Amino acid sequence: MKDVPFIKFAPNFITLVSLCCGISALKFAFQENWNSAVLMILLAAFFDFFDGWLARKLKKSSQFGAELDSLSDFISFGVSPAVLLYLWSIQEFERVGWVFCLFYIICAALRLARFNIENLNSPSTTFYGIPSPAAAGLLLIPFFFNFIFPELFREYFTIISIFLLCYSGVMMISRVPTLSLKSLKFSNSNSSYFVIFIALLIIFLISFFWQTILAISVFYFLFSLVGMLKYLFALRKSSK
Q1: pLDDT digit string (tens) for 137-188?
Q2: Any residues with CB less than 8 A from the CB of 105 and at least 6 apart, and which?
Q3: Which helix (H) or strand (E) holds 159?
Q4: Is 112 exposed, middle or buried (0-12, 13-18, 19+ CB in 10 A)?
Q5: What single-letter DSSP state applies at residue 149?
Q6: What are phi and psi of 144, to 5 degrees?
Q7: H helix and E strand count, the chain
Q8: How far, in Å, CA of 27 to CA of 41, rounded?
Q9: Is 2 left (phi over 0), alpha (psi -120 to 50) or beta?
Q10: Other CB atoms closer than 10 Å to residue 175's CB: what's the count?
Q11: How many alpha carbons lie under 13 Å from residue 39 in its C-beta half-sphere?
């Protein structure tokens, strides 16, 4: 019987850890432990990035790993953040609020299914629509804001949550081109600046964790919004 090195299964193992974090977020949400629930989703996003990076570095990508990653993403960044937002903010709307959550979850499933089909034979360096981890990050913006300013704009969190559910869902299934981290490349002359940037980012995360996460999320929201407006403007211009 041929021995199989453990390193071959390392990316899939990390994917399972990401899945565990996503499911644990649901557990903490039912317990109304919002800080822990949000942290679990953030950890799931970290492991989701790391498993893909490790698979590419080890050249151990497989169809099984891709399917497992999609299932993990659907739970961690589709179901968990939507349920978390529903329990925290919009359950006062009952069935109407749940419809918005279902819309986001369905969009996450469609986005992941489309991504698998489009990358089955020829992986792309460009995302069409925002990836599901980024969409989950947008949904968590009201949590980040509430952790920093507990009493500020509290009465608007429900409306903001519904808007983010709709916006993130539409952006996931849209054809708006967005930047993929896989396409980022750094020359030797620029690598030192990248290291400095990462070091500063870690320092800010240690010192001002929620503030830094909020700033990153808001920046990405504005980045995606500009991309959507440019895309709509280009469509309108081409139709004339």
Answers
A1: 999 999 999 999 887 777 788 899 999 999 999 999 998 887 666 555 555 6
A2: 78, 79, 82
A3: helix 157-173
A4: buried
A5: S
A6: -60, -45
A7: 10, 2
A8: 12
A9: beta
A10: 9
A11: 9
For residue 230, give both structure tokens. 């440019």
For 103, the token pair is 């819309």
Query: Which fold does the domain 6-239 belong to in CATH?
Result: Four Helix Bundle (Hemerythrin (Met), subunit A) (1.20.120)
Residue ranges of the domains in the chain?
6-239
| Dist. CA 12–CA 122, nearest whole Å | 21
Distance from the first to the final alpha carbon of the chain = 66
**DSSP conformation letters of 160-195:** HHHHHHHHHHHHHHS--EEE-GGG----HHHHHHHH
| pTM for this predicted structure | 0.88
Buried b (16+ CB within 10 A) or exposed e, 151-172: eeeeeebbeebbebbebbbbbb
pLDDT in tens, 35-65: 999 999 999 999 988 776 666 666 666 677 7
Structure-token match 């704009």, residue found: 153
Instruction: Please give the full DSSP string across 64-105, using - where no structure is assigned.
Output: HHHHHHHHHHIIIIIIHHHHHHIIIIIGGGTHHHHHHHHHHH
